[in-house]
């Protein structure tokens, strides 16, 4: 009968859990809390060998309830978290981290820092791989908070720059923060992962102290190490760093070229295109055309007036100079079967005209050149433009009419 | 679209998933995941952190206590798909034996038995026909001459019954007779070799079982909502499958008032297969609807204004069942199709199909599932292809060369062991480069620009894997709403996530926070944006993706059961069965009416019901996040949680709708007639029209009779007795030959063709006088009975008026073959030429009881299934209110024929006769 008792206990445990789950999913926090007090009994006879045991369940559910319960307070929450930390050794670091997150989100930075320090000094036997990761994260977040303190001190210094004497202590303190932050941040960014915040902070520290080589190395590693995910931000940070350092156009372009290769739809592609268009080298200008065409392939760029004006400007240049029409032709070749429906449909002509006249102007120019003056988009927009007696649209019509033969050469 | 300036921190490693796990019931609660510094560009701010999960979301509340039906149930009954108890082994003994072990056991033997009983012709047709002379099913002892060539099967049948009774008993060797018999005839008795048949059956059972566990053919869902942008009253169009086989496609206009209601009649298309998926996308103001059935995919175009009729554009046929159909949100008339053979096509209505990928292998590791999926991405030429192991993106212009991995079930995304992709979906409406991937454990949001690393991951805790998903983009500054839906459990989950810097992340100024002051921190961390946080402050408007609010469970169809008026138990059961049918689709729409925002969620069930619920948006005052210090949230002051919970009582309008629906439901499900009426039955449920068709023109006998009658009337005389004519020995060739008059040879051939050759021969050669007389007597009786009845329906209906007698007997096992049956079949139309036509009893040499036995029925070419149907039907009838037992095909009209009640009854002596002469429970087994 003990077996039966066990089974019954298990059944009622499950039933209780499903009530709690139901209440949580319907945002009935009070009801869930009542059930949870009953569920605590399940800790008594914890025979389960499941993935998530009752103690973890209680932690998760309790946390969720305390986040939302109308009568809960931060004090209670902290108290609950402390209890939960003692409930499972394996989960100690995880609970600590979550506790810290909650404190951070509620603006209790100092409490969070204390908790991080405490957690960092925690030792219990051999650490598992997961615990190792969690420990690294704890250290990294501590580094982040140290960085915040450092940054605060720095600002104080910058504001009261004249007042030398009081600054000495502040400066000392600031350097202390720097050391603590740098050590911890440096550690985590060696491990493959997405560490945007940590990298940014670490680079900021290094830059402040003039260690540009180290900063460059860190950013290069973050961007180009193949063990790291292909994070566009890594390339953006590198590019921004190079820009701040006043690096040559060439290195900026090469940084952006790689970004273009991995994310052709990145918003920096406009800068990239502008930079390339200004270049004197033919190859670069050619690349610029490629970049802007590729960016406009993406749905997110469909109504980006800036991108369209970049394309319109470059296409216009090429048409006027009548040189390198083959560039356009080549780009157009792989797009002529779907761009008309994607960008230059009659429906879009109407909508763009209504919503954004300048966008429709740029698009009409491109459509007129790529598809000829008979194109639906161009016809609609230029007609509307002329009807509204807008000068630039009349000019546009004239321009396209004059250069209509280009269309034959591009599409031929 | 800008890329977030900083992403939430996460580890990244490659390889197969390391985390062991399983379904975890609460894994999604209580975790922030990670935090990120947010709040750029605000003056006087100290570093504010935002969590990956746990930010405040919008508050949506159900407007009513349950989901409300949108459509009335269509006429005709719905046949529930098999339930686990139908194909699983259920026996007390066995349960005990297997207690503690996991896994289900399919009841293979029972299914095979069903097959033998239900399809004896297919199982034993030819040998059964050859041997039926030699098998005797009666109780009486066999006489000497017969014993030489006939064996008595009754004992064998009893043995089988006994075996059934002690199933699982280890002492099975007692049934030596059975063993002997099966040993003797296992090899030759079966029409299809037993091993082969068993293999096929087992395969089918496994298939059914796996479908029961998880039916992935429903992925994507078969319900779509097309908003009609007309302004004024909010109108939309619901696209859903209907009909008994779910092979009709309906486009129904729906007006969204307090309760959505239909307007006008739906546009309807009949398709040649069950609709599995309805996908829709709006391009250039027109909706394109892709419809997938197993072997056909079609595309419709619906102009986005009211009253515009949907036009079918194109249909493709696939050799292998299609598993996916998605419609491009970028280009009109473009779709992607996947088949279970692993082929992915880009389908353009104008240019046709382009194959992008081929091969049954899965992408990242081996998985047996043939399920494939494909969807569009931010680039109109790049398609994603998915199988259970992950997602890859292919460039349609060079599919072999240009591709990248978007999602892998592995350590990259922090998956668990055993996790599999269930539904990928392009979230283009919310964000052009975001992607949703659901597995049985978690939901992931991915960004194409950062492949493999989910920008959002959350354990959804649903009991069944989410097969349906729907995204409702939020305006800038508001959260995107994602609905996840499961099939079997009908779960619906509403999630919110935010991908843009929201303007509603308003906090009380933190520098005034008392606890901070106490802690001695200076109240203002004046961060000079020029000097510090360079990245954050220049980061622009895009922030990393975060889950907002808590997940919310929505009403399911089954949930409305408790709000319906109390039903009679059997009705309640029917209703319950209907309402708990697996969900097969989901659609939703946001409706903004000035300050009032509401969300309508539609759910389609396998039974074809569409239910709808409305959620209303409650504006939250810009308040602090809920769980903060007492100082900011004085006890009980939070406006968020003091509001009454969602309504528990139905609104009157909803109650009215329920009543209407219930009425239609009961009408559709055809209740049994009231008990005050004499029971009657329609024969149309039992026989197809062809069966019922009378013979072409009156038979010879009828013609003769009519002639005599006419003559007698003309003469003003009377017919003394009908007999003289009948007394003439039945001219054998005539009875065998229908109007056409066959020569003996062709008569013999036709008889042989119909399987009655032996009988024909016997009749032809040894036609003893005694037999003839007996036949005559029988026929006389027949004619007496038949007097006054001319139509089959009448005869049959009247045969059921002795319902009471029948039900008395019904406890004796399977119902008897009704004595009325010979009449039915004797009048049945157009039998094969060789079988005895109308009024042929004289030709039959067998005595009465034999006439009623299954052999004699079968030798008239009566299919056995019919008999079983009849038997089952009668048993149901005798036992209680009938459930709807009919397959969809024979449901033309099921109204009882009232006129039948005026028909004369069968004399009760007949039932006595049959119950005396017919051994009870003569349920034919093994086709004999």
Automatic annotation (TrEMBL), chain A:
GO terms for biological process: transcription by RNA polymerase I. Pfam families: TAF1_subA. InterPro entries: SL1/TIF-IB_Component (IPR052669), TAF1A (IPR039495). GO terms for cellular component: RNA polymerase I transcription regulator complex. This is TAF1A polymerase. It comes from Origma solitaria.
TrEMBL record, chain B:
Residues 896-910 have a biased composition (Low complexity). Residues 573-799 form the TAF1C helical bundle domain. It comes from the Eukaryota. Residues 617-645, 805-865, 877-928 are annotated as: Disordered. Residues 919-928 have a biased composition (Basic residues). Residues 833-845 have a biased composition (Pro residues). Residues 853-928 form the TAF1C C-terminal domain. GO terms for molecular function: RNA polymerase I core promoter sequence-specific DNA binding. Residues 289-428 form the TAF1C beta-propeller domain. One of its GO terms (cellular component) is fibrillar center. This is TAF1C polymerase. The gene is Taf1c.
């Amino acid at each position: 009968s003990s077996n039966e008792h066990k089974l019954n206990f298990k059944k009622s445990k499950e039933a209780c859990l499903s009530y709690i789950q139901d209440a949580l999913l319907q945002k009935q926090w009070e009801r869930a809390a009542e059930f949870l007090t009953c569920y605590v009994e399940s800790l008594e006879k914890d025979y389960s060998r499941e993935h998530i045991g009752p103690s973890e369940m209680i932690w998760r559910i309790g946390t969720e309830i305390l986040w939302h319960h109308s009568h809960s307070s931060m004090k209670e929450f902290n108290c609950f978290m402390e209890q939960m930390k003692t409930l499972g050794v394996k989960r100690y670091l995880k609970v600590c981290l979550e506790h810290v997150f909650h404190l951070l989100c509620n603006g209790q930075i100092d409490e969070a820092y204390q908790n991080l320090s405490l957690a960092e000094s925690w030792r219990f036997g051999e650490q598992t791989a997961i615990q190792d990761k969690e420990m690294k994260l704890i250290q990294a977040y501590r580094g982040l908070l140290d960085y915040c303190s450092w940054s605060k001190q720095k600002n104080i210094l910058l504001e009261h720059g004249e007042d030398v004497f009081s600054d000495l202590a502040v400066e000392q303190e600031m350097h202390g923060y720097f050391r603590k932050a740098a050590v911890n941040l440096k550690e985590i960014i060696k491990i493959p992962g997405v560490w945007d915040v940590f990298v940014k902070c670490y680079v900021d520290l290094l830059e402040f102290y003039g260690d540009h080589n180290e900063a460059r190395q860190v950013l290069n590693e973050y961007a180009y190490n193949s063990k790291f995910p292909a994070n566009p931000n890594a390339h953006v940070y590198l590019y921004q760093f190079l820009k701040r350092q006043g690096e040559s156009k060439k290195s900026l372009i090469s940084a952006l070229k790689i970004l273009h290769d991995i994310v052709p739809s990145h918003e920096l592609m406009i800068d990239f295109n502008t930079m390339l268009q200004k270049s004197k080298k033919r190859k670069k200008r050619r690349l610029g055309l490629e970049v802007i065409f590729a960016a406009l392939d993406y749905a997110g760029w469909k109504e980006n007036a800036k991108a369209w004006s970049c394309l319109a400007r470059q296409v216009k240049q090429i048409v006027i100079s009548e040189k390198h029409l083959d560039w356009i032709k080549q780009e157009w070749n792989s797009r002529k079967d779907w761009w008309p429906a994607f960008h230059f449909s009659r429906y879009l002509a109407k909508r763009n005209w209504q919503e954004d006249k300048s966008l429709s102007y740029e698009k009409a120019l491109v459509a007129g050149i790529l598809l000829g003056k008979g194109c639906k988009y161009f016809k609609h927009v230029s007609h509307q433009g002329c009807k509204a007696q807008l000068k630039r649209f009349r000019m546009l019509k004239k321009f396209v009419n004059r250069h209509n033969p280009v269309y034959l050469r591009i599409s031929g | 679209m800008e890329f977030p300036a900083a992403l939430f921190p996460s580890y990244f490693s490659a390889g197969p998933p390391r985390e062991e796990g399983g379904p975890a019931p609460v894994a999604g609660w209580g975790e922030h995941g990670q935090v990120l510094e947010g709040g750029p560009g605000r003056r006087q701010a100290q570093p504010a952190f935002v969590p990956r999960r746990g930010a405040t979301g919008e508050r949506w509340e159900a407007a009513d206590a349950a989901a409300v039906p949108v459509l009335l149930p269509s006429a005709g009954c719905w046949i529930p798909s098999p339930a686990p108890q139908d194909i699983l082994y259920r026996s007390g003994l066995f349960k005990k034996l297997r207690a503690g072990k996991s896994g289900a056991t399919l009841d293979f033997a029972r299914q095979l038995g069903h097959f033998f009983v239900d399809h004896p012709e297919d199982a034993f047709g030819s040998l059964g026909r050859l041997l039926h002379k030699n098998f005797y099913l009666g109780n009486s002892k066999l006489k000497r001459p017969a014993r030489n060539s006939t064996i008595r099967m009754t004992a064998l049948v009893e043995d089988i019954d006994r075996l059934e009774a002690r199933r699982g008993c280890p002492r099975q060797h007692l049934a030596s007779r059975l063993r002997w018999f099966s040993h003797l005839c296992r090899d030759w008795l079966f029409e299809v070799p037993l091993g082969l048949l068993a293999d096929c059956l087992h395969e089918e059972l496994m298939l059914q079982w796996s479908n029961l566990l998880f039916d992935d053919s429903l992925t994507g869902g078969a319900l779509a909502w097309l908003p009609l942008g007309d302004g004024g009253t909010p109108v939309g169009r619901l696209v859903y499958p209907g009909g008994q086989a779910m092979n009709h496609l309906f486009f129904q206009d729906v007006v969204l008032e307090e309760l959505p209601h239909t307007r006008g009649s739906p546009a309807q298309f009949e398709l040649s297969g069950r609709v599995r998926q309805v996908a829709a996308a709006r391009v250039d103001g027109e909706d394109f609807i892709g419809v997938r059935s197993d072997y056909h995919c079609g595309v419709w175009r619906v102009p986005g204004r009211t009253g515009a009729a949907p036009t079918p554009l194109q249909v493709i046929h696939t050799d292998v069942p299609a598993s996916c159909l998605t419609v491009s949100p970028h280009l009109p008339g473009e779709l992607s199709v996947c088949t279970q053979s692993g082929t992915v096509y880009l389908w353009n209505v104008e240019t046709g199909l382009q194959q992008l990928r081929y091969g049954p292998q899965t992408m990242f590791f081996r998985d047996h599932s043939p399920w494939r999926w494909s969807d569009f991405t931010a680039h109109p030429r790049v398609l994603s292809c998915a199988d259970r192991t992950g997602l890859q993106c292919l460039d349609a212009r060079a599919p072999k060369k240009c591709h990248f991995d978007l999602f892998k079930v592995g350590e990259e995304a922090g998956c668990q062991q055993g996790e599999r992709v269930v539904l990928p979906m392009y979230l283009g409406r919310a964000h052009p480069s975001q992607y949703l991937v659901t597995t049985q454990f978690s939901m992931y949001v991915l960004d194409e620009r950062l492949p493999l690393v989910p920008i959002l991951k959350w354990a959804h805790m649903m009991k069944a894997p989410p097969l349906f998903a729907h995204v409702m983009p939020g305006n800038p500054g508001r959260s995107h709403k994602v609905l996840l839906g499961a099939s079997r459990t009908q779960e619906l989950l509403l999630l919110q996530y935010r991908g843009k810097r929201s303007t509603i992340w308003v906090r009380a100024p933190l520098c005034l926070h008392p606890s901070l002051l106490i802690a001695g921190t200076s109240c203002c961390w004046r961060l000079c944006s020029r000097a510090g946080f360079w990245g954050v402050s220049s980061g622009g408007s895009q922030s990393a993706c975060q889950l907002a609010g808590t997940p919310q469970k929505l009403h399911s169809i089954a949930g409305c059961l408790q709000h319906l008026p109390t039903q009679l138990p059997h009705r309640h059961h029917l209703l319950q069965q209907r309402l708990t049918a697996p969900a097969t689709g989901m659609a939703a729409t946001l409706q903004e009416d000035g300050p009032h925002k509401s969300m309508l969620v539609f759910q389609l069930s396998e039974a074809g019901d569409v239910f709808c619920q409305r959620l209303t948006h409650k504006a939250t005052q810009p308040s602090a996040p809920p769980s903060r210090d007492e100082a900011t949230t004085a006890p009980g002051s939070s406006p968020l949680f003091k509001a009454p919970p969602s309504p528990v009582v139905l609104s009157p309008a909803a109650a009215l709708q329920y009543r209407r629906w219930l009425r239609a439901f009961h009408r559709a499900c055809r209740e049994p007639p009231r008990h005050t009426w004499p029971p009657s039955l329609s024969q149309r449920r039992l026989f197809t029209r062809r069966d019922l068709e009378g013979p072409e023109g009156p038979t010879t006998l009828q013609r003769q009779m009519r002639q005599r009658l006419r003559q007698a009337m003309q003469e003003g005389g009377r017919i003394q007795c009908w007999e003289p004519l009948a007394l003439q020995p039945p001219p054998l060739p005539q009875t065998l030959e229908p109007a056409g008059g066959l020569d003996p040879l062709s008569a013999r051939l036709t008889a042989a063709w119909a399987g009655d050759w032996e009988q024909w021969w016997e009749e032809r050669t040894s036609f003893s006088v005694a037999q003839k007389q007996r036949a005559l007597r029988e026929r006389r009786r027949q004619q007496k009975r038949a007097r006054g009845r001319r139509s089959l329906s009448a005869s049959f209906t009247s045969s059921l008026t002795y319902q009471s007698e029948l039900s008395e007997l019904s406890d004796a096992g399977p119902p008897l073959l009704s004595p009325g049956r010979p009449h039915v079949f004797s009048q049945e139309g157009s039998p094969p030429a060789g079988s005895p036509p109308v009024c042929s009893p004289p030709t039959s040499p067998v005595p009465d009881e034999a006439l009623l036995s299954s052999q004699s029925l079968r030798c008239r070419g009566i299919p056995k299934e019919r008999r079983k149907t009849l038997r089952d039907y009668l048993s149901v009838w005798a036992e209680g209110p009938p459930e709807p037992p009919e397959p969809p095909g024979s449901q033309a009209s099921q109204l009882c024929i009232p006129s039948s009640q005026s028909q004369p009854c069968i004399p009760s002596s007949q039932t006595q006769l049959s119950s005396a002469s017919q051994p009870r429970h003569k349920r034919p087994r093994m086709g004999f």
